[in-house]
Amino acid sequence: MPADAADWWRSAAIYQVYVRSFADGDGDGTGDLAGVRARLPYLAELGVDALWFTPWYLSPLADGGYDVADYRTIDPAFGTLAEAERLIAEARALGVRTIVDIVPNHVSDQHAWFRAALAAGPGSPERELFHFRPGRGERGELPPGDWPSQFNGAATWTRVPDGEWYLHLFTPQQPDLNWDHPAVRREHEDVLRFWFERGVAGVRIDSAALLAKDPALPDLAGRPPEPWPSGTGEAHPYIDRDDLHAIYRSWRAIADSYGAVFVGEVWLPDSERFARYLRPEELHTAFNFSFLSCPWDAGRLRTSIEETLAEHAPVGAPATWVLCNHDVTRTVTRYGRADTRFDFAAKAFGTPTDLALGTRRARAAALLTLALPGSVYVYQGEELGLPEADVPIDRIQDPMHFRSGGTDPGRDGCRVPLPWTAEPWHDPWLPQPEGWGGYAADRQAGDPDSMLTLYRTALALRRAAGGFGGGSLAWLPAPPGVLAFARPDGLVCVVNLSGAPASLPAHTSLLLSSSALDAAGLLPQDTAVWLRT
């Protein structure tokens, strides 16, 4: 698409950069902005339209940077604000836009606002920016409420020395903000302007459905902590409240004034309520978690695709497609297991994995997602076919692991530093497994059969050939276990998830195949092709 297209986001290929693990520019074992800048030619050659950066702000890193201490300062471990501005400009010169992460539900306990609230004491204006409450019980020794944490249902209230408690839906180091307070709203609007003025093209909104809370903070009292469907007639006390939409309408006006876009992290099972966030005056796009968590099953995938397109159609928003991110078990590993879905509750140590099978399926899944209408997100390392790493117990840093009592392996396995060469990083913040060099980018670059070559070829075709991006999708007749659909300009995608080779529909050319056809010209199991008819 043209680099200056106003609707670039409707069909963009967006690459997620987890800075801490992407590339180390100064050799201290931690990824940084210098490392990203040095790899910008690689990203441009890969063929992506934008980079989404997970938080690069000043942070104590209690939760991988999602505990922000200052939105206007780059964490010194990553670089400086001036370097971030150079990165944004240099990427744009290569035709690659920048999307930054905003975490509006909470801040770090080291944020100036929270430190002032602790110092000011009960009843102070400073505490009104958060959710401080007296405890229950004779001496206030019991938490004020029963809401479970987003991390394995752990406690969401922490008591401070003066006896009050504060709310945190995540870790105790991430106090929730009070979005009924006008200062909280003004501050975030100013932060948006701050980054839009520095040239960012968009903002990804973390935990976008959690900001607004019922002011009474009522107990769940046995009701489910998950989002409630529309038919209940009740508003959930802290998920998907109607108050949110006024917030996002005010944000949209700011984004429109800069020509910028939003993508929301919205986990909601109710398609009608999900679509409300994508109305023309609110968010431009939202992540599609139904597809991400779907197992490698033809029927389930088709249902997810159909439901996704149907829920986006009434509001005219493009769908988004993603296989993996910084919170999710890597695709190669997940697809090599007996249970190929993703579920936080199902994560466990020692799950058997067939990496050869997972790699074959991940290659086919890449062509499937890149052929669907809308935009697509690629998490760093997916283009290298990286599996989930087994991080030694004594090196795990993810709070999800510790707050589960050690039963959840956490998310560090998908956050291990990328292998650029066979030589490992010097003293990386998370250890690279033995054999990681076999996935190195420099080795894959010259291999016509590598995962990197597949992604480069697919992204180049997606950008240059007709039929990709926006537009229609029509299902074609296919045997059980085979997905086949037509896109505009004669483009056809076929994915064989059945147990036997499948015939291809009539076509004039084969554009790309995730694996070779068999000797009879049939499509093998766990293989995808792009055809021109």
Can you summarize this structure?
The chain is of the alpha/beta class and 533 residues long. It has helices at 19-22, 33-38, 40-46, 81-93, 112-120, 182-196, 244-258, 271-276, 289-293, 298-312, 331-334, 355-371, 399-403, 441-445, 451-464, and strands spanning 13-17, 50-53, 57-58, 70-74, 97-102, 132-133, 157-159, 165-167, 202-205, 261-264, 285-286, 320-322, 375-379, 474-475, 482-486, 491-496, 509-513, 527-532.
What's the structural blueprint in terms of helices and strands?
Blueprint: E1 13-17, H1 19-22, H2 33-38, H3 40-46, E2 50-53, E3 57-58, E4 70-74, H4 81-93, E5 97-102, H5 112-120, E6 132-133, E7 157-159, E8 165-167, H6 182-196, E9 202-205, H7 244-258, E10 261-264, H8 271-276, E11 285-286, H9 289-293, H10 298-312, E12 320-322, H11 331-334, H12 355-371, E13 375-379, H13 399-403, H14 441-445, H15 451-464, E14 474-475, E15 482-486, E16 491-496, E17 509-513, E18 527-532
Parallel strand pairs: 1-2, 1-13, 2-5, 5-9, 9-10, 10-11, 12-13
Antiparallel strand pairs: 3-4, 6-8, 7-8, 14-15, 15-16, 16-18, 17-18
Helix pairs in contact: 6-7, 12-15
Q: Can you put this structure into words, describing what you see?
A:
By secondary structure, the protein is of the alpha/beta class. It folds into 3 domains: 13-106 and 182-458, TIM Barrel; 112-167, Oligo-1,6-glucosidase, domain 2; 472-532, Sandwich (Immunoglobulin-like). 26% of the residues lie in helices and 14% in strands. The chain has 15 helices and 18 strands. It has helices at 19-22, 33-38, 40-46, 81-93, 112-120, 182-196, 244-258, 271-276, 289-293, 298-312, 331-334, 355-371, 399-403, 441-445, 451-464, and strands spanning 13-17, 50-53, 57-58, 70-74, 97-102, 132-133, 157-159, 165-167, 202-205, 261-264, 285-286, 320-322, 375-379, 474-475, 482-486, 491-496, 509-513, 527-532. The strands form 4 sheets. The chain has an 8-stranded parallel β-sheet. A 5-stranded antiparallel β-sheet has the order 14-15-16-18-17. It has a 3-stranded antiparallel β-sheet with strand order 6-8-7, with no helix packed on it. Helix 7 links the parallel strand 9 (202-205) and strand 10. Helix 6 runs parallel beside helix 7 (244-258) and helix 12 (355-371) packs parallel to helix 15 (451-464). The longest helix has 17 residues, at 355-371. It is globular, with a radius of gyration of 23 Å.
